Here is the input.
Amino acid sequence: MPLIKSAIKEVRKDKKKTARNRIRKSRMNAAIKVVEKLTKEKGTVEKIAEAVKAAYKAIDKSAKKNLLHKKTAARRKSKVAKLAKTVK
Here is the structure.
């Protein structure tokens, strides 16, 4: 445990940041999994398009908040697009 006051505060901030990032990352992964599930179940094109839009939004937000590198985000968006294309 840190002894210096500023280091103690930093630990508190890190816990909050970690919790926030974990929520963001799990939401992003959940959005991607929805697209995967719909493509496996042969869902309607409209539902898949809606899910892809939500996944893109989650991925872009994660990249904007520096949770993902921008090229990792691009790769994941490409993966989602590829999945959605298989149904169309």
The longest helix spans residues 5-40. The chain has one domain: 5-87. The chain has a mean pLDDT of 95.
